[in-house]
């Protein structure tokens, strides 16, 4: 038989209905059913696969967004570090300028020459000039660097950015501490610089040292007495220069010193200039190291033109 016959009977009196279906059609229908089932299964699997991929894609998008935020935060941290480092660099530049590194320190007027014994070595300071003996800063104030080097192999993914952010925070904190330390150092150096520019460090006039500080035989009485200063002999009118920055506090007659000039250099240091012929400054004027302030003369109790030069520290000649 090449076909299948189906007989349909509705009731006992109705005429039966026969339906003949070729076997070839049945086979084709079975094959079509199997193929359709397979295609349906493949479609369902592909749908769930795409849905799973979409969920994963959404998760990746969220992760990528979070990483972009972390990268932006990290960039901001690095910008803060750059700002702090720029601040440190600027402070370092100021420290170098104030400390005069590198460079040399000027000594004042072009005609000023130091009276010092001939020979090798540094010129000797005038008698009585105070020396700055400020002790060095205590140990432990040195600058310190950042933390340990960052090892990228110790973290991956989002945790790596967290490590980078923590490291950047450490760098920022370290830079802040370094900047604060340099600011303190800057204040200390400014104070030291002010002290240095205010300390008498050059001879006030060129000439001959005829009398030193201490006990001597008086040229007027012939007796031994204390000479509270040094005498520098020179021709009348020889310029007298300020040995350091200061403010003129007195300019006038002062007993045996004749025309006398007093300059207050601060920090308890004053200089006195006696027997001058004339003044080029007045009380209240601020003078700088090397500035011409008076001229050598022979006013007051004097045997000839010379400068009586006194350095007072806390009111006592030194």
Q: Can you describe this structure?
A:
- It is a single chain.
- By secondary structure, this protein is of the alpha+beta class.
- The chain folds into three domains: 3-63; 67-106 and 126-198, no CATH class; 208-317, Glucose Permease (Domain IIA) (Distorted Sandwich).
- Helices cover 37% and strands 23% of the residues.
- It has two helices and 15 strands.
- The chain has helices at residues 23-99, 157-198; strands at 3-8, 17-22, 208-211, 214-217, 224-227, 230-233, 239-241, 246-253, 259-266, 269-274, 276-279, 286-287, 292-296, 306-313, 316-317.
- Strands 3, 6, 8, 9, 10, 12, 14 and 15 form an eight-stranded antiparallel beta sheet that branches. A three-stranded antiparallel beta sheet has the order 7-13-11, with no helix packed on it.
- Helix 1 packs parallel to helix 2.
- The longest helix is centred in the N-terminal third of the chain and has 77 residues, at 23-99.
In short:
The chain is α+β, with helices and mostly antiparallel strands. It is 37% helix and 23% strand.
The assigned structural class equals alpha+beta
User: Can you give the mean pLDDT?
Assistant: 78
Please tell me how large the radius of gyration is. 49 Å
Query: Could you describe the largest sheet, including whether it forms a barrel?
Result: 8 strands, antiparallel
Q: What's the number of structural domains?
A: 3
How many helices? The count is 2
Q: Let me know the number of strands.
A: 15
The proportion of strand residues reads 15-25%
**Sequence stretches where pLDDT stays below 50 over 5 or more residues:** 102-155
Helix content: 25-40%
This entry's quaternary arrangement is single chain
Shape: rod-shaped
Helix-strand topology string: EEHHEEEEEEEEEEEEE
């Amino acid at each position: 038989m090449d076909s299948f016959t189906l007989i349909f009977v509705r009731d006992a009196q109705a005429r039966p209905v026969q339906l003949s279906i070729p076997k070839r059609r049945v086979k084709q229908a079975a094959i079509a059913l199997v193929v359709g089932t397979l295609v349906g299964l493949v479609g369902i699997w592909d749908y769930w696969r795409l849905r799973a991929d979409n969920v994963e894609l959404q998760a990746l998008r969220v992760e990528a967004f979070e990483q972009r935020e972390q990268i932006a935060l990290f960039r901001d941290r690095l910008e803060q570090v750059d700002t702090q480092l720029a601040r440190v660099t600027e402070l370092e530049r100021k420290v170098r300028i104030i400390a005069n590194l590198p460079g040399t320190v000027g000594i004042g007027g072009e005609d000023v020459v130091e009276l010092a014994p001939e020979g090798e070595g540094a010129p000797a300071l005038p008698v009585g000039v105070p020396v700055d003996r400020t002790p060095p800063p205590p140990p432990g104030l040195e600058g310190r660097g950042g933390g340990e080097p960052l090892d990228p192999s110790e973290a991956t993914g989002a945790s790596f950015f967290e490590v980078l952010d923590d490291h950047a925070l450490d760098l920022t904190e370290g830079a802040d501490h370094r900047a604060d330390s340099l600011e303190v150092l800057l204040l200390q150096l400014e104070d030291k610089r002010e002290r240095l520019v205010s300390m008498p460090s050059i001879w006030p006039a060129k000439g001959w040292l005829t009398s030193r500080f201490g006990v001597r035989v008086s040229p007027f009485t012939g007796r031994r007495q204390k000479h509270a200063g040094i005498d520098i002999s020179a021709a009348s009118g020889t310029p007298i220069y300020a040995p350091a920055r200061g403010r003129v506090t007195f300019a006038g007659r002062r007993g045996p010193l004749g025309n006398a000039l007093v300059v207050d250099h601060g920090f308890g240091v004053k200089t006195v200039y006696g027997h001058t012929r004339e003044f080029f400054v007045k009380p209240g004027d601020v003078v700088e190291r090397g500035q011409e302030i008076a001229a050598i003369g022979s006013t007051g109790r004097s045997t000839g033109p010379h400068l009586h030069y006194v350095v007072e520290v806390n009111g006592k000649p030194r």
